[in-house]
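Forum: Protein Structure Q&A
Topic: Joint prediction for protein chains with partners

I've read a bunch of threads here and the consensus seems to be that you should model interacting components together rather than docking separate models afterwards. I'd like to see that in practice. Below is the full input, 496 residues plus whatever partners are listed. Could one of the regulars post the assembled result?
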Amino acid sequence: MKKWSSFVLIGMFAACLILAGCGGNQPVAPKAAEAPKTVELTISAAVSLKDALAEIQTNYQKKNPQVKLLYNLGASGSLQKQIEQGAPADIFISAAPKQMDELSAKNLINTATRKNLVENKLVLIVPLNSSAKLSKFEDLTNPAVQKISIGEPTVVPAGQYAQEVLRKLGIWDKINDKLVLAKDVRTVLTYVETGNVEAGIVYKTDAASSSKVKIAALAPEGTHAPIIYPAALLASSKQQEVAKDFLAYLSGPEGKPIFEKYGFVMGK
Amino acid sequence: MIWQPVLLSIKVALASLIFVFLFGVSFAYAMRKWDFPGKAAIEALFALPLVLPPVVTGFLLLILIGKQGPIGCFLSETFDLRIIFTPYAAVLAGTVVAFPLMYQSTKAAFLAIDSDLEDAARTLGAGEWRVFWTVTVPLAWHGVVSGLVLSFARALGEFGATIMVAGNIPGKTQTIPLAIYFAAESNDLSQAGFYVLVISLLTFSMIWGLNLWSRIKKEPNYQKGALR
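Posted by a regular:
Agreed with the consensus. Here's the joint model:
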């Protein structure tokens, strides 16, 4: 098997490294019966991927018990700073290209491995029991909609995309005084779930995570910049092969249905 | 309008102070006067807003006073009142988080009073109301005032619960802490710095004033030296 042999190779390589440090000792070939050592793979990922990654972790480790996946979940900006400060990680998955671009400019990622892992969509959500008839973003101007929540556009990326859509549709000025600007996208979800606002704009993945809201409309194609989650290996990773293998698994036939289940669209 | 959050914050904190004073003093008095089963549990409940992360307090308030919450439903159906996402919600948040400070401070002051003095007033024929205002409160005044100052400062700086229930509506419910948070997060450091300066000066001068005042009360001659 291909995977198996790559692990043996890594094991031998590691053994060589260790032995090389030991001066005059005779090189000893590793015993064939010895099982490959457990490899720990650290993945720094945007926290919005949490549920999908947790499910992938269970599946992946069943198939590859010798690889231990460790997730470091957080805001993409914070993860970027950790990596800049030398935090150990093998893979970085950011919620926007910006953080990846900045790491790339500092030569901290293995650019050849960079790919657009998944994409997210922006949706208009209403409480599950909502009686307001909303079927498109333009319906937000309807007087029955008194309060709308979005993320604060200067701070929350989802809010920035929402503002972009509302501007593009020409209704930003009309609904401006209905807006409640939340400090993160989860708060928007809470406001809609509890019925305190008639509508909110969140990522499709947030909408999929809640059973108390329903999607009223999908942001029309081209009304906002694509919401891309790039992934790449870090240049400092000492386990490039294992990490590459996991990255391929994520976007492969086994990762795809899980990401899609949680509302993501696979990256192009 | 750059002063708008400042004015709003002061108004909200002052309004919270009225409620905090009423509830803090009456509960502290009641808890000292009466003993009843479950008292310890209620006291612990009163301390909760002090230990819970304000965002959690805010979430609980949102559940209670929100559109579908029990209190929110009652208010909107009976009085046609919607307080969520209004400055009144900010007052409520400020009151809830500042209440434990007022309560603890007042209670400690009440407990320190020699109850013989109150009894003496009673033997001289004073009614409970009169005893309270002419003996208890003047003796506990220091604790009451420091409770008020701490509560005001706490309500002024309240962020987590406020943003949850009052939302963040610039010009309507955006208080100083909210303005600081969003200015800082969007890298507008001069605006954030301005508000930090304002809120720090406000709080600093109040607490400094309180310390000065209590010192003067204790040693009347201190006044001349301190002001120089």
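Residues 16-33 of chain A have pLDDT under 50 and may be disordered.
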